[in-house]
Amino acid sequence: MSGSLALLSDAGHMAADVVTLGAALVATRIATRPDTTGRRTFGSYRAEVFASGLAVLLMLAVSVYIAVEAVGRIGAAPEIASGTMLVVGAIGLVVNVVALLLLRGGAAESLNVRGAYLEVVADTVGSLGVVAAALLVRSTGSAWWDTAVALAIAVFVAVRAVGLGREVVAVLGQHAPSGIEPTELLGALEEVPGVTEVHDLHVWTLTSGMDVATVHVVTTDPGAGPEVLEAASRMLRDRFHVAHATLQVETTDRSRCQGADW
């Protein structure tokens, strides 16, 4: 009705957030559901990662659509109903400000609430852009401001999508978790009393807040296995916050473990 591309881009951004937050909620329910097949040995925790992948696709789709529409308006002079644009943008701004006030208290206590809070902050920025574009269009009579703000929102959404996409690829690619340097973890294991060698170290993220690892540790004392296992597991949990670690303790008086052949 308004003919505003900025308003449409903000609506697309917020719609993508609604869909992705809903998908995240469904994924959370799926992740906590017990496995009845016996085949999902890691559970369904990665449902959250797939929901994040959906968010990336939706955000990129919104950005591409707005960019294509903006290019199509080059050289044209579309009719912009700045009054409608201003009213709808202001309503969106009020809703987002109320949501910010509701979420602000819990944002410092919960990572999930903080994530929702940051989403609303991004939506608030978009609504502010729409209001600013409406005022500029009304005062100057130029529709260029609407297109410029729409492109700014599209770029903003695309940057967020790329950042989230990199995190999704890192998890699905089983890269080392963010904040954990494998060489540092390897050195810490070698410093555990009784450990003489460490090999076949693998560390990755199963889902957000759940890092796992497997590793082989070697000791010279055949009777020190339980103590080495307990000390190494405690160190991984306390120092690196690895939620689950599978450690294989080996002794030097037996044939050397060849480990994985890949």
UniProtKB/TrEMBL annotation:
Domain Cation efflux protein cytoplasmic: 179-250
Annotated Gene3D superfamilies: Cation efflux protein transmembrane domain
Domain of life, source organism: Bacteria
Broad class of where this protein is predominantly found: membrane
InterPro entries, sorted: Cation_efflux (IPR002524), Cation_efflux_CTD (IPR027470), Cation_efflux_CTD_sf (IPR036837), Cation_efflux_TM (IPR058533), Cation_efflux_TMD_sf (IPR027469), CDF/SLC30A (IPR050681)
Membrane topology: Multi-pass membrane protein
Alphabetized Pfam families for the sequence: Cation_efflux (PF01545), ZT_dimer (PF16916)
Subcellular location, record wording: Membrane
Keyword Manganese found: no
Cation efflux protein transmembrane domain sequence ranges: 1-172
TM helices/strands, residue ranges: 6-28, 49-68, 80-103, 115-137, 143-162
SUPFAM superfamilies documented for this protein: Cation efflux protein cytoplasmic domain-like (SSF160240), Cation efflux protein transmembrane domain-like (SSF161111)
Keywords carried by this UniProt record: Ion transport, Membrane, Transmembrane, Transmembrane helix, Transport
Family (UniProt): Belongs to the cation diffusion facilitator (CDF) transporter (TC 2.A.4) family. SLC30A subfamily.
NCBIfam families, per database record: CDF
Alphabetized PANTHER family for the sequence: CATION EFFLUX PROTEIN/ ZINC TRANSPORTER, RE54080P-RELATED
The name this protein goes by in its record: Cation diffusion facilitator family transporter
Organism: Terrabacter aeriphilus
